[in-house]
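hi! just following up on the protien thing from before. the input was this:
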Amino acid sequence: MHTAGVAAAYDRWAPIYDLVFGGVFATGRREAVAAAERIGGRVLEVGVGTGISLPHYGPNTRVVGIDISEAMLGKARERAQQLGPGRIEIEVGDAENLRFGDNEFDVVVAQYVISAVPNPERALDEFVRVVRPGGEIIITTREGAGDGLRGNIEKLLMPLTTRLGFRTDFPWELYEAWAAKTPQVRLVEHRPLPPLGHFSLVRYQKLAG
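and the predicted 3d structure came back as:
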């Protein structure tokens, strides 16, 4: 996977993204935003896409939404305007190279993003950098099955799904390995999402000091 290819893939998805993925990912999006709302303040949503999750944020939460796909962001800007001018900022941005300063956000939300970036660990490192100590990184993510029939199918599908902009074979061990070498974070939640548990809600807190 490479950045330009992912951007092109999601440009193609833009006209039908909400129709195809809106219902499938609805529970995860609501759960992620609810977790972010419990902290509040300034939220960076990485991979905001068409802005489908924006209506779930409360009126007092300041949201900056970024995405690598200009076509997706066109729809996100329309949604942001409908929710009230000035409350939500939408801009082009790369999860692996965030333009923001250190400790700038109270929460980073990344919904169904980590399995779609070329270098997941680099993106996770960037999330840690821009969130304040005590703040949280809230992720909804695919979890690969690893072994067994489902795992084998996921591996077989990888050449196709990477062209579509995401990975099917994406093991939880990747997160475990990253967290083990990232002492600034602690895992506070990891739970499967319905209906089938192929996706999970994951929350890390950035530690002080």
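The beta strands are 42-46, 62-67, 88-92, 105-111, 131-142, 185-193, 199-206.
DSSP finds seven helices and seven strands in the chain.
cheers
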